[in-house]
Amino acid sequence: MTGAATLLPVKKHSAYIERMATPDLLTAEDLLALNIQDKRTELVRGRLIVREPAGFRHGVIAMELARRLADFVKTHALGVVVASETGFTLARNPDTVRAPDVGFIQATRVPRPLPRGYAEIAPDLAAEVLSPDARAGEVLAKISDWLNAGCQLVWIIDPDRRMARVYRADGSESLLSADAALDGEDLLPGFTCRVDDLV
Predict the structure, then answer these.
(1) Which residues are within 8 A (CB) of 141 and not within 5 positions of it... i.e. 6 or more apart?
(2) CA–CA separation, 141 and 129 (whole Å)
(3) Inter-residue contact 31 to 87 (CB < 8 Å)
(4) Angle CA(9)–CA(12)–CA(17) in degrees, nearest 5?
(5) Is the distance from CB of 81 to CB of 66 less than 8 angstroms?
(6) What is the dihedral of CA 157, 159, 162, 163, to 10 degrees?
(7) pTM for this structure?
(8) Would you say residue 103 has pLDDT above 90?
(9) Which residue, among 107, 73, 100, has the nearest Cα to 84 in the 3D structure?
């Protein structure tokens, strides 16, 4: 066929988009009531995030860090260390509920009485142990949520690369090799833990 191409009018079929129901955003209270068995859940700007339970190595590393941190915090009466999957409401309208693998709250900030649901604060320290399938964008979003909500320190432990990253409220960050140590800095003066003691 020769000559100019002929453009045929095509009707846009967007009705299916217009009719699609937009799911309602969830609240922190909705998340608490869901009780999804055998899954790890968080809420990010009202949207439910569901993940499989963490692997064995992940659990061992998180527990070892939590044990070391809890021993230090108790010895020096510095506050409270919380276990994996303890939810914190970091934002409202829409709600964001995040759960670190290990968290620390200074004694002066621990809510009293202890809430039955999610605490309406950010921990002073949030530690995350990366899973093999962790996506960089999701990890960075979580770090951002922690820091924007008031965390002073975020520790990211990467078992596969045998390293850790430290993110601070002032915007600075550090990369730690296996022979370097996580440091409590001004938040937990005197606390250190070598990365290779965890990974």
Answers:
(1) 44
(2) 15
(3) yes
(4) 175
(5) yes
(6) -10
(7) 0.84
(8) yes
(9) 100
CB 48 within 8 A of CB 26: yes
Note the pLDDT of residue 102.
97
pLDDT of residue 40: 86
DSSP output for the chain: --SSPPPPP-----HHHHHSPPPPPP-HHHHHHH--TT-EEEEETTEEEEEPPPPHHHHHHHHHHHHHHHHHHHHTT-EEEE-TT--EEEETTTTEEE--SEEEEEGGGS-SSPPSS-BSS--SEEEEEPPTT--HHHHHHHHHHHHHHT-SEEEEEETTTTEEEEEETTS-EEEE-TTSEEE-TTTSTT-EEEGGGT-
Residue type, 120: E
Q: Which domains are seen in the chain, by residue range?
A: 54-197 (3.90.1570.10)
Token representation of residue 91: 């934002």
Predicted confidence band of residue 31 (pLDDT cuts 50, 70, 90): very high
Q: How far apart are the first and last CA of the chain?
A: 67
Name residue 27's amino acid. T
| Residue that is written with structure tokens 């899954």 in the block | 39
pLDDT at position 23 is 64
Structure tokens at 7: 């453009």
β-pair partners for 157 = 129, 164
At 62-89, the pLDDT tens digits run: 999 999 999 999 999 999 999 888 999 9
